[in-house]
Known about the structure:
This protein is of the alpha/beta class.
Amino acid sequence: MFPTIHAGVAMSVLLDVTNLSVHFPLRSLALWGGARHVAHAVDGVSLTLAPGETLGLVGESGSGKTTLGRAILRRAPITAGTVRFRGEDITTLSGEPLRRLRRNMQLVFQDPYASLNPRLRVRDIVGEPLEVHGIADRDAIRERVSRLLTLVGLPADAGERFPHAFSGGQRQRIGLARALALEPELIIADEPVSALDVSIRAQVVNLMQDLQARLGLSYLFIAHDLSVVKHLSHRVAIMYAGKIVEIGDRRSVYERPMHPYTEALLAAVPVPDPAVERHRQRAPLSGEPPSPVDPKPGCRFASRCPLVRDVCRETQPPLVEKRPSHSVACWLRE
Length: 334
Ligand SMILES: Nc1ncnc2c1ncn2[C@@H]1O[C@H](COP(=O)(O)OP(=O)(O)O)[C@@H](O)[C@H]1O
Ligand SMILES: [Mg+2]
């Protein structure tokens, strides 16, 4: 497809994000001579995604996951860095080319209750992207919508009803059907199961895996804890205060994490085997993440890190590939 050279290995890349930053200037007290403050929501993030691959993106609330996802879709202002899709630099696209690109990248929202227009029938919600992009005539849209509803496991008559008639899990299926209407290659799923009952999360995750296998989709799957993305991710990225602190193959990250923050997140994931659970070292995280406003130099995790050293407070550690396909940003691993 689109071969590029990454770490000496030829592989095809669908999405290639390099040094991406999203900084929000805050309304300042400049009027009274105050300094200008800037929120570093996303700060120098690099990642890639291959066709058909799922990258799990995990971090606490406020770490910049949503902003990163939106910046990739060109729905948040990019301060610096580049986003390439199928090899094309899309960082500054606008007008018709951006509109065309957006068909290929879709967002699935966190809140299935707030993201569907309550006044529209489900068939109009799912068919709307087709209409907006002028893809098909009325009959063809009707036909395609009913196929989409079947694809996501909804009953045939679902199209005639309004969103309020559906449960949270079913609404997320409607959101997926809508996202799939334009046959995208990339789906950015922003905590798609966080608002759902634990008992139905697995159904939605399984559906998404099934859709990926059938349609060859790539997912950037955002979550705030590591348990949700464990079974569906091929690779996992850990985000902390606007930065990727660790990224690698799923097995490597879960079995041999290198960043103290990843270890703390893993300590919060329940282990089904009580014998393993009992003997495991627990390192619960205390304190709050730092403010993204005017970050201090040094590692962002230094204020909460149990293993912090002087160097950590002085200089930002770079993200370095320490094992094959597994990188970490931590001075302890230098
Ligand atoms: N439009 C904005 N203006 C100022 N700050 C913002 C804006 N959007 C997000 N932020 C800040 O950026 C940080 C990351 O937010 P967000 O991307 O929503 O994180 P997450 O999705 O991981 O919870 C937060 O501190 C948030 O307050
Ligand atoms: Mg978010």
